[in-house]
């Protein structure tokens, strides 16, 4: 949203934007103290995007707040959905890479296999997961060595998988 909330924005939306910006300005110090500075945030409401500093750096897009809420701040009056039955079995592949760049390069090829999902896990998240006792054993069982990045690839399939588990 531009700083100037001129006549193109309906009054109720402009009022909400002004209230959110005022909240960000009022709580900027608290947000800076309590929210870690991350390169990429995919959850947690992205509340830091409300602060004047984020706006000054070009990161003040209010859509980030909505995306960070994973839809919990949205309301839809109508939706058109295309639904398919869930296939009974799934296969999960964990692809390990020596670098983030190698993982990104491989992802373009993995998506041609029509997976249900591809999730990137970087070194920071691997280390964080290993530092949490309830996750350590699972990560150590699923991840070999010290890769820099993982791509977790999920496929849904109809037939029973007979391939190797690793």
Describe this structure as you would to a colleague.
The chain folds into 2 domains: 11-68, no CATH class; 89-157, Alpha-Beta Plaits (2-Layer Sandwich). The protein is built from 7 helices and 3 strands, in the order H-H-H-H-E-H-E-H-H-E. Strands 1-3-2 form a 3-stranded antiparallel beta sheet. The longest helix is centred in the N-terminal third of the chain and has 16 residues, at 11-26. The protein has 166 residues and is α+β, with helices and mostly antiparallel strands. It has helices at residues 11-26, 28-34, 52-56, 63-68, 100-110, 123-131, 133-142, and strands spanning 89-97, 117-122, 149-157.
In a few lines, what is going on in this structure?
Helices cover 39% and strands 14% of the residues. By secondary structure, the protein is of the alpha+beta class. It has two domains: 11-68, no CATH class; 89-157, Alpha-Beta Plaits (2-Layer Sandwich), CATH 3.30.70.
Helix count equals 7
Spatial arrangement of strands, main beta sheet:
1-3-2
Uncertain segments are none
Q: Which second-level CATH architecture of the largest domain applies?
A: 2-Layer Sandwich
């Amino acid at each position: 949203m531009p700083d100037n909330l001129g006549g193109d924005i309906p009054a109720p939306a402009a009022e909400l934007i002004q209230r959110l910006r005022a909240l960000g300005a009022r709580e900027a110090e608290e947000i800076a103290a309590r929210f870690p500075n991350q390169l990429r945030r995919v959850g947690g409401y992205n509340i830091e995007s409300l602060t004047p500093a984020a706006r000054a750096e070009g990161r003040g897009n209010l859509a980030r707040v909505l995306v960070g809420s994973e839809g919990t701040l949205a309301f839809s009056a109508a939706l058109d959905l295309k639904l398919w039955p869930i296939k009974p079995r799934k296969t999960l592949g964990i692809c390990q890479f020596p670098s983030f760049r190698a993982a990104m390069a491989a992802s373009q090829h993995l998506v041609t296999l029509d997976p249900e999902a591809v999730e990137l896990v970087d070194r920071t998240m691997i280390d964080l997961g290993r530092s949490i006792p309830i996750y350590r054993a699972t990560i150590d069982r699923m991840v070999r060595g010290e890769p820099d990045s993982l791509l977790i690839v999920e496929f849904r399939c109809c037939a029973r998988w007979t391939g190797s588990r690793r």
